[in-house]
Amino acid sequence: MTSKFDRLSVTRRRFLAGSALGGLAVATGGIAAPHIARAADAPAVKVGIIHPVTGGVSYSGTQGRAGAMMAVDDINAAGGIKSLGGAKLDALLADAQSKADVGAAQIEKYNDAGVSAVVGGYASFICLATTQAAAKHGIPYVVDVGTDDRIVKAGLKNTFRFSPGYGVFVETAIRTLNEINTAAGKPAKTAVIVHEGSAFGAGTAALLQKNLGGIGINVLEVMKHPTPNLDFNNIVLRIKAANPDLVIPADYYNEYVLLARTMQQQKVKPKAIFSVLGGAASQYKFVKDFPEAAAYIMDCNHWYNPHKEAAQVLRKKTEAKGLYYTYEVFLNYEAVMLLADAIERAASTDRAKIIDALTNSSWAGHFMPYGPTRFENGQNTGARAVNLQVLDNDIKVILPPEFANAKPVFPRPV
Amino acid sequence: MVEAAIIVPAILNGLTTGAVYALVAVGLTLIYGVLHIINFAHGALLMVALYGVYFLHALGGVDPYLALPIMIPAMFALGYGLQRFVIGRASHGKDENVMLVTLGLAIVIENLALYLWSSDTRTIDTPYGFSTVDFGVALIAVPKLIAFAGALLLTLALWALMRWTDLGKAIRAVAKERRGAALVGIDIEHLYAMSFGIGIACLGAAACLLLPSYYASPHIGSAFVLIAFTIVVLGGMGSFVGALVGGLIIGVTESVGGLFLGDSLGQLGVFLIFIAVLLFRPTGLFGQKA
Amino acid sequence: MKSGAAILIVLAALLPVPWLVHSDFWLNFAVLALYYGFLGQSWNILGGFGGQFSFGHAAFFGTGAYAAAVLQLRFGVNPWLALVLAGVAGAAMGAIVGALSFRYGLRGSYFALVTLAFAEVLRILADSLGFTGAGVGLQIPLHQSAANFQFATKTGFYFTILGLTALGLGVVWAIEHSRFGARLAAVRDSEEAAQALGVDVFRTKLIAITLSAALMALGGTFYLQYFLFIDPDIAFGPQVSIAALLAPIVGGLGTLFGPLLGAVALQLLNEISESAIGSAPGLNLVLYGVILILIIAFLPEGIFGLARLRTRLRGVMRRPA
C-alpha cells in the first residue's frame, strides 16, 4: 500500500535506463538514432516529447503526450515553422517510465539525436532530473506541468515553465479561500490537510500549513499518505474525529477519488472540500463517474480560459479521440505552442537561439487564463492559477471574475 | 489527536482490510508451501483477475460476486497453464530461476495489460458499492463486509480441500516429501501445476471480492504483494489458517498504526512485525517446523 | 587464463572507451552498464559467492546514497569524502542486518524476505523523516567540477565508475584467492559441512554481507552524483534490489565477470527491445520480459554457463569412450 509497491511492478524490470537502439547500431556502425522518428520531409525541427507513459503516473503521461502531439499536428497542418521555410516539427517520443533516471537517460538520447528542444516530463520528480540533464547540453526545455518550484529555482538557463508552480497555487488558494470565506461570512475556521507524500503533495501541504493561519483558518491536522494508497478509512476516521470545516486535499487522481468516495461513504461532510492541485477535483472523468462525491468540490488548479474558442476547439478534438480533456492535455498543447512560437521567432534550430527566444517570449496566442507572458528565471510570471468548482455536473471557473463562468457556492448546501 | 471512539472503527476497518489481504495471501502461502517458490507474479495475476472481473461487469453486466464461478476456474486454468508450461519448464527446478521466471512473467503480464488496456483506472459502480452497515461504533462498507465473509469462507474451503480430499492429501504429500511422493506414483508436475492453479484461483476469488471497493489498473497488484508475503511468513508458510489470522493481524496493525503514526509511518509496524517474526519465530504462528 | 591477468586486460580494454565512443548516448550506456555491473558485483559477493540471496540490497544502496546526500547538504562534506563515508555507513548497515539475520539463522527465502523487509523499513523511515527530505527526496544542486564529484561531461563519471568496477573486480579476485573465499564457498555449498569443518559460519557470512553492503553503498553514492536526486523509492525501492541481483544471475553467479557481462547484456536487451517495438507503452517491456524468461529457460547458468558448458563438453569428448 505504498508507492514502493508501485515501483515493484514498475521498475523491477525497467531498472535499466531505457533508451533507443541496440547493438545493431554498433554492429553496423550506424549512428544511434532514436527509435521513434516521424516521417518528415524537408529539414524538420526535431523536438523531444517526453512523458511517463508507463509506470505509476502513466495516465497523466499518456494524456500529456496526446496533448503535445495534437499541438505538433496542428502546427504542421498549419504549415509548420514559417520562418524556416515551412519546416515541420519532427516529434521524437520517449517514455520516462515514471522514473527520474530513465527520463534523464532519454534526454541523453535526445542530445545524440540532435533535438533542438524538449517538452514534457509531467511529474515534478521527473522534471527535476530531466531539466538538469538537458541543461548539461544546453537543450531548451519546456516543462509541461511539474509544479515543484525547485525546478525553476535551480538556476538552469535552459528551463522554462509556462504554467505556475505550487508556490503560486498556494498563494492563490489562500487568497481566494479568504475571499470566498469572507464573502460567505467566514463559516470556515478550521481545516484538515490531506496530501500525498512525494514532491508535489508534500511541498504544497507545507506551504498551506504555513499560510492558512494568516487568514484565520486553524489547521487541525495534516495527514500524509503514500501514492498509491488504497484505503482511506483511517484518514477519514481522523477527519471525522477532528471535524474540520474544510478538508484540503493535494493528491493525484486515484487517491483523490478514493478519498472523496470514502468521505461520502462514511458520511463525513465538511462545509467544503477545497483542494489545491486536487488530482481529481478538476477532472471530467471524476465528475462523470461519481457525480455525488464530486459535487461542490472546489479546486485551485490549472485550467484553460473557458471564453477562448481555441480551448473549446481543443476540447472537442480531445473528446473526439475518446480522451478526457484534462490539464495534462491542454498544458502540453500550450507548451508545444509556446515552443513553436519561440522557434518561429528564432528562425533557427540552434539550441542557444531558441533559449534566447524563449527567454524573451511574450507569447499571447494562448488560451490560458494568464497575464502577459514573461519569463523570469525560467518561470512565466504571467501564469495564473484559477479556482474551479464542480457545479451542475460540470467544472466551472469561479475565480478570478474575468475568466469565471459561474459563481462560487460556499459552504456546500446541506 | 486520537480518541478512543475512533480506535474501535479503526480496528474493525483493519479486520476487513486484513481479510482482503488474507485472500491474496492464501494463494501465495499455498504456492510457497508446496512449490517453495516466491511467486513474484502473484500481484500481476491479481491484476489480471481484477481486469477480468471488471470486463465481465463492464461488457457483460455481470455482478462481481456473481462472477465468482467464472473467475475461479478461469484463473485456475491460467495458473495451471503457467506453472506447467512456463514456470516449470523454464526454471529447470532451480529456485532462483523460478523467482526470475515469475519476475519475467510479472513484467510481461503487467505491460501487456498496460498495452492492451491502457493506464486508466477502472472502477465499477454497484448499487451496494456505497452502502454501509451501521455497527453503532462504526460504519462499515458493505463490500468490505462481504469481502470479510468471503475470505473466511474461502479459507475454510481451502482447508477442507487440503484436509479431506485426495487431491489435498496428494498436494500435502508432495509438499512434505517430493521424492517420496514421486516414488509412490504421484505425478509431481501435475500436482505442482494443480497447486499453483489453486493458488491463482484464489486470486480470482479475491478479485471478485475486491473490485467493488478498489479499482483495476496495471499497477495495482504490486500494492498487495509485499503485505501478502508478510502475512504468509507471519502466519506460517503453507498454513491457510495462518494466512487468515496473519492477514487480520496485519490489517489491524496497519490500521491502528496508521491512526497513531500516520499512514506512511504506520506501515512500519507491519514490517517490524515481519522482521521480528522472521528472526524469532520464522515458522510463523501456525507453520510447521522446517 | 589467470583471472588476475583477465581483469587487467578487461580494464585496459575499457579504458579508452570515452575516446572510441563518439556519442554521448553510448557513453551514457557504458556508464550505466558499468554501474549496474558494479551493483551486481556487490550483490554477487554475498549472493553468488556466499550463496545468500538478498532481495533487499537497496537497503545498503540507499544508506550510502542518503548518507552521501545528507553529508553534503547538511554538513558541507566534500562529495569524494562523502563517498568514502557512505561506504562506511553501508558497511555498518550490512553488519547490522547480517548480525540480526545470521544470528538467528535465517537462510534461503527467509533471509531474502528479511532483507526485503529491512529495505522497506528504511524506505518508510526515509519517507517520514525530515532530515532525509521525507517523501520529497533530496536534490544536490548543480555545481559541476571534478572536485565536487560532478563532472561536466560523462567522461569523468565513466572513469569513476570504471574505478569502482576495478575495485569490485579486485575485491572479488581477492576473495577468490583467499582463505576467506574458500570458507565462503564452503558455507555456500553446505553450511552444515562447513560448520563441521570448523568454519565460523556466522563470521564468514557477516564479513561477506559487510563487504557487499559497503560496495553497494558506494554504488548508491555514484548514483546520487550522476543523477543528483534521490528519494525513498529510488534509494530503497525494489528496483535497485532487483537490478542488483538480475545482472549476476543472468551473467553467471559466483563468477568474476558474470555481473558485468550480465549488466551489459541486459542493457543491450533493453535497448534492442525498445528499438524493435517502438513507443507503444508497455510493448517493449513485454518483449524484455519474454526474453528474460527465455534466457533463464535456456541459459540457466547465466551467460557464463555457456563457457562452462563448452568446457564440460570438451572434457567429455577427450575422455575415452
Describe this structure in words.
- The complex is a heterotrimer of chains A (414), B (290) and C (321).
- Chain A is α/β, with parallel strands linked by helices.
- Chain A folds into two domains: 3-164 and 308-380, Response regulator (Rossmann fold), CATH 3.40.50.2300; 167-301 and 386-399, Response regulator (Rossmann fold), CATH 3.40.50.2300.
- Chain A is built from 15 helices and 14 strands.
- A seven-stranded mixed β-sheet of chain A has the order 7-6-8-9-10-13-14, sandwiched between helices. In chain A, strands 2-1-3-4-5 form a five-stranded parallel β-sheet, sandwiched between helices.
- In chain A, α3 (58-77) packs across α14 (327-346).
- Chain B has 290 residues and is an all-alpha fold.
- Chain B has one domain (4-280): ABC transporter involved in vitamin B12 uptake, BtuC, CATH 1.10.3470.
- Chain B has a two-stranded antiparallel ribbon with strand order 1-2.
- In chain B, 62% of the residues are buried.
- Chain C has 321 residues and is mainly alpha-helical.
- Chain C is 76% helix and 1% strand.
- Chain C contains 15 helices and two strands.
- Chain C has helices at 3-14, 17-20, 24-49, 58-75, 79-103, 108-128, 154-176, 179-189, 191-196, 201-227, 232-236, 238-251, 258-277, 283-298, 303-318, and strands at residues 138-139, 229-230.
- The longest helix of chain C has 27 residues, at 201-227.
- Chain C is globular and about 55 Å long.
- The model of chain C has no long low-confidence stretch (mean pLDDT 87).
- The chains are: A alpha/beta (414), B mainly alpha (290), C mainly alpha (321).
- At the A-C interface, α1, α2, β2, α4 and α5 of A face α3, α6, α11, α12 and α13 of C.
Structure annotation, total helices of chain A: 15
Helix content of chain C: over 70%
What's the number of structural domains of chain C? Answer: 1
Helix and strand string of chain A, N-terminal first?
Answer: HHEHEHEHEHEHEHEHEHEHHEHHHEEEE
Q: What is the C-alpha radius of gyration of chain C, as a whole number of Å? A: 20 Å
Task: Tell me the strand order in the biggest sheet of chain C.
Answer: 1-2
Which fold name corresponds to the CATH topology of the largest domain in chain A?
A: Rossmann fold
What composes the largest sheet of chain A?
7 strands, mixed
Q: What average pLDDT do the residues of chain A reach? A: 85
Number of helices of chain C: 15
Distance between the termini of chain C: 28 Å
Instruction: Kindly give the count of domains of chain A.
Output: 2
Sheet with the most strands, sense and barrel status of chain C: 2 strands, antiparallel
Q: Give the CATH class of chain C.
A: Mainly Alpha
Percent strand of chain C equals under 5%
How would the global form of chain C be characterised? globular
**Residue share in helix of chain A:** 40-55%
Largest interface: A-C, 61 and 57 residues
Let me know the number of strands of chain A: 14
Q: What is the rounded distance between the termini of chain A? A: 34 Å
